[in-house]
Structure formats: C-alpha cells, structure tokens
Specification:
The protein is of the alpha+beta class and about 100 residues long. The protein has a domain of about 70 residues. About 15% of the residues lie in helices and about 25% in strands. It contains one helix and five strands; from the N terminus they run E-E-E-H-E-E. The chain has a three-stranded antiparallel sheet. Strands 1-2 form a two-stranded antiparallel sheet. A hairpin with a 6-residue loop joins strand 1 and strand 2. It is elongated. It is a peripheral membrane protein. One of its GO terms (molecular function) is zinc ion binding. It is found in: Endosome membrane; Late endosome membrane; Lysosome membrane.
Length: about 100
C-alpha cells in the first residue's frame, strides 16, 4: 500500500522568534514567556576572557592565586539575564 504525503504543508502556524538585545545592565522589557513587564534579573559568571587571562597569568609565573584575579573582575564576566517573574532564561551578554 503506497501512501501519498504532501511535499509541503501550508496553512500551519507561523513561529515568530523575538531576539532581545541584552547588555551588561538589567534590561527593561516584556518577557516573551510570561508577558509581564520586567527589568531582567542579572547574574555574573566568569567568561572565556577570565579563563584565558588566568591561564596567561599562570604561564607568566603568577600561579599562587594571582591567576584567579580575572575571575573577580567585572569586565571579564559574562552577564546572564533571567525573568524575575517566571525565572525564564532570557539571554547572555558575553564580554
């Protein structure tokens, strides 16, 4: 038994993706998940720049704790944005 399936499906729902530009500071926006007007909650974590800087410092001979300094500097941190209302992950700002 041979079944014929359509080559393309038309008339289906359209998926719209909203890209929200986020920066190092909290962003005022409408959450795409819970549709509440919010200021994003931010959390910083060491990024790739912090790890590379730490390795370079360690290779230069400062490995007795000095190589951990970039993990404490805000300019080396990535900023993660979440919705304070529904806790949805909204994006990351990379340094």
């Amino acid at each position: 038994m041979i079944k014929n399936y359509p080559q393309s499906i038309t008339g289906g729902p359209t998926i719209v993706t909203t890209v929200v530009p986020v920066g190092p500071q909290p962003t005022h926006m409408i959450c795409p998940y819970c549709h509440a007007e919010i200021d994003t909650a931010t959390k910083t974590e060491p990024g790739l720049i912090a790890y590379i800087s730490g390795v370079v410092i360690a290779l230069l001979g400062c490995w007795l704790g000095c190589c951990l300094i970039p993990c404490c500097v805000d300019e080396c941190m990535d900023v993660h944005h979440n919705c304070p209302n529904c806790k949805a992950y909204l994006g990351r700002y990379r340094r």
